């Protein structure tokens, strides 16, 4: 890639959450293989991010590649209105058989945010069909569910997205998450404050939405499973739908197949995305129970009112089918457990560092929370110079590597983080 290309990129192309006047640097990747990203100049970076939770099998996986080649020779896309096709049918069959029993009606869409929009719309239409005026969604403080409007409206109002679009967003209600974290002792008192909210407002609440156990963008918090269990119980008690956003946590990332499994609960509506295709294509799935789907279908409209152009894209479904085949033998479990052990032992000593607030690990997620804000462009450059791809945000350096990463490569990621902490210029004092 020429300098000219990079200048063009800088001048004309938006990147996620990046200024067009003072853009953060971008690094030119020309290929990716296994757990490595390869830059134009030939440098290989060990990937600590799985392209934001998605590339769980690593990159360029021969089986997923093969599935895509086979599918592309059949058809890359066809509309889903009035048409169906084998990759979608296979995928939905598979999802129904591997997701909690009863979640048997599947809506396939383009991205995680859209899966959340679909889930919210399902909940609203469900109550409309039942003749009840329920227009609020209850969400959690520090939550994040995507960047589209419905999804933003259930993200923590304290984050800047709410401030900016406030006059256009529906207003929802938010619960404080209890301070007890995953692995700590639970006290019944932790739940008192929010039980009251259910009691006072349940007649207006269509659904509760939550990221089970792990709140990602909101701060990489791991909260107590008992909280999730309690919310499930309150939803049952007050007849409120529970939406689980497993877009980041699904498919084993937290050490369980779904993060909901930590609390042994089943949501009424489940959102999947990211790793659904092994990170190869964009695709999401929203699953629900038949009685909910049937109630929605009895609403005034007579159907669920959503139908994206690229719904159930055959290529994306083929990638998802190949990815699910790779997960079928359960070897992910051993991989995630091994990563968890190395992350725990490798990162533990960093908690003694004077600038580190906290170190935590759950499954194949390792987090180093700093006291200071991170100088993102500086630390990113430092990481790239040291051969790794890690993209921190705010005061959080975190690792969510592909499940297939080797111990040696994981140790390099960990040691590089350790080295980065001793470079004052990587932080904003
Ligand atoms: N929910 C959660 C928990 C997420 O982490 C994300 C993406 N970061 C989304 C929803 C939105 O997914 P997408 O970026 O595919 O729209």
From TrEMBL:
The keyword Transferase applies. GO terms for molecular function: adenosylmethionine-8-amino-7-oxononanoate transaminase activity; pyridoxal phosphate binding. It is found in: Cytoplasm. The record marks 17 as: Participates in the substrate recognition with KAPA and in a stacking interaction with the adenine ring of SAM. Substrate binds at residues 52, 144, 274, 307, 391. GO terms for biological process: biotin biosynthetic process. Its EC number is 2.6.1.62. Homodimer. This is Adenosylmethionine-8-amino-7-oxononanoate aminotransferase. It comes from Candidatus Erwinia haradaeae. The gene is bioA.
């Amino acid at each position: 890639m020429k300098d000219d290309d990079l200048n063009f990129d800088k001048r004309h192309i938006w990147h996620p959450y990046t200024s067009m006047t003072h853009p953060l640097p971008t690094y030119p990747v020309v290929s990716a293989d296994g757990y490595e990203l390869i830059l134009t100049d030939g440098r290989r970076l060990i990937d600590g991010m799985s392209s934001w939770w998605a590339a769980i099998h690593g990159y360029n996986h021969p089986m997923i590649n093969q599935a895509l080649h086979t599918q592309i020779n059949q058809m890359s896309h066809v509309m889903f209105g009035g048409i169906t096709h084998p990759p979608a049918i296979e995928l939905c069959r598979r999802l129904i058989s591997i997701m909690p029993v009863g979640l048997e009606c599947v809506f396939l869409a383009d991205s995680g945010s859209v899966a959340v929009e679909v889930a919210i719309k399902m909940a609203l239409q469900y109550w409309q069909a039942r003749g009840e005026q329920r227009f609020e969604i209850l969400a959690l403080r520090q939550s994040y569910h995507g960047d589209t409007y419905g999804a933003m409206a259930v993200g923590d109002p304290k984050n800047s997205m709410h401030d900016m679009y406030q006059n256009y967003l529906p207003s929802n209600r938010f619960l404080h998450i209890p301070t007890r974290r995953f692995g700590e002792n639970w006290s019944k008192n932790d739940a008192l404050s929010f039980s009251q909210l259910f009691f006072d407002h349940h007649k207006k609440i269509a659904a509760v939405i939550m990221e089970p156990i792990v709140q990602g963008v909101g701060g990489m918090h791991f909260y107590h499973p008992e909280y999730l269990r309690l919310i499930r119980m309150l939803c049952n008690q007050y007849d409120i739908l529970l939406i689980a956003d497993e877009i980041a946590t699904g498919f084993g990332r937290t050490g369980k197949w779904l993060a909901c499994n930590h609390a042994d609960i089943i949501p009424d509506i489940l959102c999947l995305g990211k790793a659904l295709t092994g990170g190869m294509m964009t695709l999401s799935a929203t699953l629900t129970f038949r009685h909910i789907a049937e109630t929605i279908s009895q609403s005034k409209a007579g159907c669920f009112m959503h139908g994206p152009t690229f719904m159930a894209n055959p290529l994306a479904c083929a990638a998802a089918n190949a990815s699910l085949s790779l997960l079928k033998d359960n070897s992910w479990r051993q991989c995630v457990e091994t990563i968890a052990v190395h992350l725990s032992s490798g990162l533990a000593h960093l908690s003694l560092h004077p600038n580190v607030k906290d170190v935590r690990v759950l499954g194949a997620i390792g987090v180093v929370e700093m006291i200071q804000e991170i100088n993102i462009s500086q630390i990113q450059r430092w990481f790239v110079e040291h051969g790794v791809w890690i993209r921190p945000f705010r005061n959080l350096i975190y690792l969510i590597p592909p499940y297939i990463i080797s111990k040696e490569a994981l140790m390099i990621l960990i040691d590089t983080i350790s080295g980065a902490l001793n470079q004052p210029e990587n932080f904003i004092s």
